[in-house]
C-alpha cells in the first residue's frame, strides 16, 4: 500500500495548493465566449466578489477527494501491473508502460468520475444563480458539495454521476503517454548516471517533460468532458460536442483553459512526483 499512500498524499497536496487555477481552467472550458486571456484579472475578480474559500476554493472538497483517490488508486494499480508484467516478460518496454498505465487509468476513472462530475458542476456554476448548489453561512464550503451530490442523484440518477465518462476514458491516453515518457526518462537517467534513485531536480525535469508531452497531445478531451458534464440534457455526445466546439469556436476552442491548466499542471506535476518518489523512498527503507 506504499504506492497508494504516497499517491494520496502527493496528489492531495498538489490539489490543495493549486485549486484556484484548476477552478479557472474549468470556467474557461465551459464558457464558449471567453478566451485564454486575463488569468490574473479573473482570479482577482473571483477573489474580490466571493473571497478565498467560497470563490477561489469553490469545489475544493470534490477536487481533493477526486485527486487523492485518483492518484492513490492509479499508482497502486500501475505499480501492481508493472510488477506482474515484469514477472512475466522481464524488462518492460514502452508498450508495457502504455498498457499498465491505460488499464490503471481506466479502473481509476470508473471509480472517481462522480467526484470530477461534482467538481465540474460546482466550479462552473454561476456564482449569482439562485438555483446554484446550496450554500449556507458557516458551512457552505462542504454543504455545497453534499448538495451537489444529492441533487445530481435525485434529478439525474446514478447515470448523472457518469456524464463525461466516455470522454474521460479518452484521458486514459494522457496518463499512458505521461507515464510512458516518464518511465523511459528514468531508464535513460539511470543508464547515464549509474545510480538507482533520481534526485529532486531530476524528478522535476523528468516529470515536466513527460507532462508537457502528454498535455500538448491530449488536452482537447478535457474541454469535451467538461462540456458534457456541465450539460443538463441527455443528448450530449462526444462527437456532437466536438462538432459544436469546432463549428462555433474553431480549433482554438479545444484548447480553452490551456493557459491556467498549464500554470496549474506543471507545478502540480512537480509536487506530486517529487513527493511520491520521496514518500516511496521513506516507506520502503
UniProtKB/TrEMBL annotation:
GO terms for cellular component: membrane. It is a multi-pass membrane protein. SUPFAM superfamilies: Mitochondrial carrier. Pfam families: Mito_carr. It is found in: Membrane. Keywords: Membrane, Repeat, Transmembrane, Transmembrane helix, Transport. Its main location: membrane. The keyword Ligase does not apply. GO terms for biological process: nucleotide transport; transmembrane transport. Solcar repeats lie at residues 1-84, 92-188, 198-282. The chain crosses the membrane at residues 160-182. InterPro entries: MCP_dom_sf, MCP_transmembrane, SLC25A32-like. Belongs to the mitochondrial carrier (TC 2.A.29) family. This is Mitochondrial folate transporter-like protein/carrier. It comes from Rozella allomycis (strain CSF55).
